[in-house]
Structures are given as structure tokens and as C-alpha cells.
Amino acid sequence: MMSGREYVGAELQDLLGPVFNMDPSRDDKTLIKDVFPMPDPSELRLTTRNWFYHTDRRTGEAGEINMRIEQGKKLLGWDTPTALIRDYFGEEIALYSDYVAYYTKWASPMAVVGVVTCFAQIIEGNNTIMTPLYCLIVAIWVELYIEGWKRHESSLRSVWNTEEFEKHEKDRPQFSGEVMLNQITGDYDRVMNPYKRYSQMALSVLVLFTFVSSAVVAMLAITILSNNTLKSSGFGGLLAGSLVNFAVIEVFNRFFKGIAFLLTDCENHQKDTQYYDHAIAKTCMFQFVNSYCPFFYTAFLEENVSLWGSTKGCPEDDCMYTLRVMLGTIFIGHILLLQVIEVLWPYVAWKMGMNIDIIHCSGCCFTRQTDEEILELQPKDFNSQEWVPLTAEEVEYAKKTYESPFDDYNELVIQFGFVYMFAAAFPLGSLLATINNMIEIRTDGFKICMLYRRPMYRCAQDIGTWLYVLEAMSVVCVMTNCGVLALTTNSLERYHVASKHPSKSEQVLLAVAAEHIVLMIKAIIGYIIPDEPLHVYERRLRRKHALTIQQEREFFTADKLGEFRSKMADAPDDYETHVELEVQSKH
Fold first, then answer.
1. pTM of this prediction?
2. How far, in Å, CA of 416 to CA of 441, rounded?
3. Is 11 exposed, middle or buried (0-12, 13-18, 19+ CB in 10 A)?
4. Where are the beta strands (DSSP E) in 380-443?
5. If phi over 0 gives left and psi between -120 and 50 gives alpha, with beta otherwise, what is residue 276?
6. Which residue ranges in the chain fall short of pLDDT 70?
7. What is the distance between the alpha carbons of residues 195 and 267, in angstroms, rounded to a whole number?
8. If you write DSSP's letter for every residue of 150-206 in order, what string do you get?
9. Ramachandran sector of residue 125 (left: φ over 0; alpha: ψ -120 to 50; beta: rest)
10. 364 - beta bridge partners?
């Protein structure tokens, strides 16, 4: 069994070079089907018990979920065993699990405020004072949440000593380039012509722009068609139109994610971090437009603009009500669908498979030759009725591979937009998101530990481009909520912020003014709060000082110091000799 910490990335490729670099025309390429680390039973048992209370009632080992009443507080909380997850899976998965716990912890107080705002809207209507107050709280909360995560993430980097991981990250096995001498280090490195990469990235931008434009047109057309067709059908019509939008959004998101990774593959990035950062940027740009385009149209355009012959006005003549129904339907459908895709169906398949202790081997099985340390295929009679028990390796091979937490991060980012970009229309979303994330923490642990193979150890310095996506969405949150307050509700008019019957231009000016004020508050908060705590900064200085002292001790030994002084003493003579020879050569 291989330890994930012994062979990582390119090191594993160097160890098993003949496996990864076999000529496709050779007949021996099927000797090794796959390479993966085997689970450690004792470490896996400890991790599962602390992550989601997963124990076997018969043997005490992993195998059956126990939802005990006395453990309900822990099961429904947001604590995760980050240290254990890091030791068993690596920093990449540990960072993700810690981020989900951090997000859930911070979202809990917003769930309480959201419930209060929802009741106020039910009692007093959309124009209650709680609506603009909740939007202001959301804007400040989002900034504090992001700044807090930066500090927490920097603390994890410091404790795990991964601050300079990306500087020393090894090349991707899939990276192809020319081998050239590095004039600085003296080593031979693989490099790619930058102009070739720029041309490929330009092609990716063109394809991305094409798909984004197509998504805008398609989503607007579907939203307008469904709203006009079902406008007179009441709540049932709104629900049906929202379900149509939900289905199209989910299909388009999954389709383009494959396109985004295909485009990123063609760009031939050298490091895994670069590869995933570019894939994240492409995916989020498309999914942002695809997922939220119907809400932008309903909130800001449907009542004021006639597109493609559509009639102005929202169903029930209440765009806030329409927006709320769309958000609730699509958001709830999104989280339910993801739970089914990620956990429920694999769990059912896994439970059915666990009831079978042995299988009929009608093809072949792997057996180890003790004389020759190789794996060989032993054919079996297809007509025989011999039953062969499953080995631990075969059980692991039957599981799927957990590539990275990309899909899990993507789910949280889309959820973040649903809940906080249109918080004025759907304040109950924060409660639903908190409940979903409490469940998500445990289901992620069950999924990664039980339904997938143990992934290769992967280090990570931070959550990558996802942080920049959240920062961009936090700015959009301020803009959309200010726009909804000024254009979609009458909150400003009711509380005498605007005139009794404000014109559209006045409403837009009020939205822009409110947005600038809130963004200024966000900028001040971001400036005041440092991105890393003082103890992280001091620990980094201590490490640099210790490294400098160590290097000085290694260099300034008695022998090396004497050799250095002799060279310095002979330097003027060598220089004069060099000058004399140079002058003689000129004459």
C-alpha cells in the first residue's frame, strides 16, 4: 500500500513512468488497469467517526450510518475534524471541508435575521423596514465573512506550512512542452511557447463569449415565453415556468462545465493550480449568466421593457412576488437535485452492492504471483459456476474516483448567489442554505470516505480562484439588492427616501447612490481588517530568520570561510592579470 504523502503528482509519475507513458500501440498497456492508494482501516475509522459518526454495529468498522439521538447536536453542527481530514486526504480536501464548516457557521446568524425579515414581509408586506435593513446587513455580513475567511485561511497555511507551495509545485503529468536549459537554475525544464498558449487562450475566450451570449438569449427567450404563456395561471403557472427555467439552467450548467474543462485541457497549463484556476474562471462566468439571467430580467426588465413583442408587467402585477417564487423554486430544486446526484443514488447503489459478499467471476480475476512480483491475468472458464470472493483492491477499483472538490465548491458558490444576490426577495433562503450545509458537511464526509476511492494526496495553498469569485459576487450582491429596493419595491417611497411617485430616472439615481454608499462601507471594512493575523506574520518572519541562520551556518564553516577569504585576497591580482591580457590582445 502506498502512502499518499510519499508520492505526489509528478513524483508518482516518475516512480511509475512506464505505466503513465506506455506507447498506445504496445500490447502490454492493459497489464496495469489503474493506480490508486488503498485506505488505511484504522485511520479511516477514526476519520469517519469524527466526521459523520459512521460505524458498523457488528464489527465497529466503517459500514453503516448511525444517526443516534445523543449525537444529534454534533451531526447537525458545523464542526469538522480538519486535522484528521488533512492527515488522511491532504490539504486540498481539508481546506474544502473547513470552508464548508466556516461558511455554515457564519450563515447561521443570517438565517435568524432572514426568518425575522420573512415574517415581517408576510405581516407588513414587501415594503417593510426590515427589507432594506436586511439588505444592508447582508452587504456588511458578506464583507466580514470574506475578510474573516482570508484570515482563517492564512492561519491554516501558516500552521500547515504551505505558504510557498505554489512556488515549488511540480508540473502536471499532462503538461507537454519542450525541454530547455534554465539559465538561472541550471536545470532542464519543460516549457511551452507562450505565444502558442496565448493563442489557445484567445480561442477559449472566443468560445466562452459565444456560449455566454447564447445562454443570455436562450434564458431570456425561455423566461419571456413561459411568463407570457402562464401569466394568467396564477401560482401554478409561476411554479411551472420556474420549473422549466430550473431544468434548462441545470442542463446548461452541466453541459458547459464539460466544455470549460475541454478548453482548459487545450491550453496545456503547467501546474495543477493554474489548470483549476482557469477552469473555475470559465465555469463561473458562464454559470453566473446562465443561473441568474432569469432573475435579473424579472427584477429589472420585465416591468419596464418589452422584448421580442412581450407585454410589460409581471404576473399578478407584482414582480417581487414573481421573483420570490422563481428564487424559491429554483433554489430548492437545485439543492435537492444535487443531494440526489451526489449522495442518494450512489448510496443506494453502494447499499445494494454491500449485500453481496461474493460475485461470480465469469471473466478473469487478479492474482499475485509469489515467484514473480507482477500482476497477471488469470482467465477463468466463462461457463463455470465458480464464485470468487472480492478482494479489498477489487472493492476499491469498483468505486469511482474523487478527482477534486471542484463540483462541491461550485455548488456552494451558486448557492451563495441564490441566497444573497437577491436577498430582498427571498430572505428565507439563508435558513434553507444553513440547513442544507449542515447536512452537506456529513454527506460530503460519507461520500468521500465511503462512496469513492481514497484520492491521491493533494496539497493546496488556498481555495484558489473561488475566493475571487466570491469577492466579485459580493459586489454584485450590493448592486442587485439596491436595484431591487429602488426599482422593484416601494420601500424607499414608503419611508420618504424618495418622492411620492418617483420617476424611473429618480429610482435609478437612488439605487446608484445607495450602491455607492454601501460599497464605500465595504471598502472601508476591507481596508481596516488585515488579510492575515499578527501571529501569522510573526511566524513567517521567525521561519525566514531561522532559514537565514541555517544557511549562514552551512555556508560560513571554517573551511568555506577560509576558501572565500583566499579568493577575495587573490581577486585584485586576478583582475590585473585579466586586464593585462586584454590590453595585449588589443595591441
1. 0.80
2. 16
3. exposed
4. 387-389
5. alpha
6. 1-31, 53-78, 227, 230-232, 306-313, 315-317, 346-390, 490-502, 555-587
7. 11
8. HHHHHHHHHHHT-TTTTTSPPPPTT---EEEE-TTT--EEEE--HHHHHHHHHHHHH
9. left
10. 379
